[in-house]
Specification:
alpha/beta, 336 residues, L-2-Hydroxyisocaproate Dehydrogenase, Chain A, domain 2, nine-stranded mixed β-sheet, three-stranded antiparallel β-sheet, Rossmann fold, 19% strand, globular
């Protein structure tokens, strides 16, 4: 028998990513067949009609696990009693917009949302930021939600993790579930570091498997440096070029998997998520940085004790430096 309802809030719910995820959440793909859900759809006034239409479709699906859908443009109402929040809606970067302008615009979105979460969310609230720049938007929201433990806020790098696995699947002609130990370090941006130095495929180190397929270790390392890392980091731009718009279904799927694993546990494997640093691997405390993480169902924890070679360390530190620059930029705005 399914348990009592879990309130799940989706912001930017009238957009494509919100639309792609809400039906799967209602079907039980995120929290499982043993948890009923109540959806809260938050939109700006201009997006309310789209969210209201999606709510009608949810009703028409007659999902057995769905206990109701509410649509609102009021953040306080949207987050009242909420246990899981997916912050999808964000200000995209427009033509000629400087990065500082983008951060300022998003501070005006994620700051008030953080305040609303602190004011009314359930005591077990967990938040994942999907809207970009996701790491720093999560930092802004966590800072604004002063009475909520900072480790309840995460940002999505599961999409990057899945993209990295997908590239290895193609290169090695294996199944995704045969690959373990991929990690995404740093920022959800082109500076991110997709790392396979601890990854295995069918219990063989990925680098060895690539060397066997490509001829030697030098060829494997060249493919990783010249093809794999840049393609994973720039996959979003590639998709925009090919389909004419940004990732939708893959982003929604990654957000669902991020919450599912945080809530239900990762088992014996790890995944990747951007979490609030406690100083792991030399990352300044308080930054929202992607690490390899595990969960026992109570939230993500960083996998510690992994080694870096000099090349990997340099890539990671470059991405962390970008996060520091973003943090400093929003500090200048008085946001954090």
């Amino acid at each position: 028998m399914a348990s009592s309802s879990t309130t799940v809030t989706i912001t930017g719910a009238g957009g494509q990513i919100g639309y792609a995820m809400m039906f799967r959440i209602a079907a039980g793909d995120m929290l499982g067949a043993d948890r009923r859900v109540r959806l809260r759809l938050l939109e700006i006034p201009q997006g309310m009609r789209g969210a209201e239409g999606a709510a009608l479709e949810l009703q028409d699906c007659a999902f057995p696990l769905l206990d109701g859908v509410e649509v609102t443009d009021d953040p306080r109402a949207a987050f009242d009693g909420c246990s899981i929040a997916l912050l999808v809606g964000a200000r995209p970067r427009g033509p000629g917009m400087e990065r500082g302008d983008l951060l300022a615009a998003n501070a005006g979105i994620f700051g008030p949302q953080g305040e609303a979460i602190a004011a009314g969310a359930a005591s077990d609230i967990h938040v994942v930021v999907v809207g970009n720049p996701a790491n720093t938007n999560a930092l802004i929201a966590a800072h604004a939600a002063r009475d909520v433990p900072a480790d309840r806020f995460t940002a999505l790098t599961r999409l990057d993790h899945n993209r990295a696995v997908g590239q290895l699947v193609q290169a090695l002609d294996v199944r995704p579930d045969e690959i373990e130990g991929v990690a995404i370090w740093g920022n959800h941006s082109a500076t991110q570091f997709p790392d396979v130095s601890h990854a295995t495929v069918r219990a063989m180190p990925v680098v060895e498997a690539l060397a066997a397929r490509l001829g030697d270790r030098a060829a494997a390392l060249a493919w990783l440096d010249e093809t794999f890392v840049p393609r994973v980091a720039k996959r979003g731009a590639e998709i925009i070029e090919v389909r004419g718009s940004s990732s939708v279904a893959s982003a929604a799927n990654a957000a669902i998997e991020h919450v599912r694993d945080e809530q239900r546990g990762t088992g014996a494997t790890w995944t990747s998520a951007a979490v609030v640093s406690r100083g792991e691997y030399g990352v300044p405390e308080g930054l929202v940085c992607s690490f390899p993480v595990t969960s026992d169902g109570s939230g993500y924890r960083v996998v510690e004790g992994l080694d870096f070679d000099d090349r990997s360390r340099a890539r990671f530190e470059a991405s962390v430096a970008e996060l520091v620059a973003e943090r400093d930029a929003v500090r200048e705005l008085g946001v954090v």
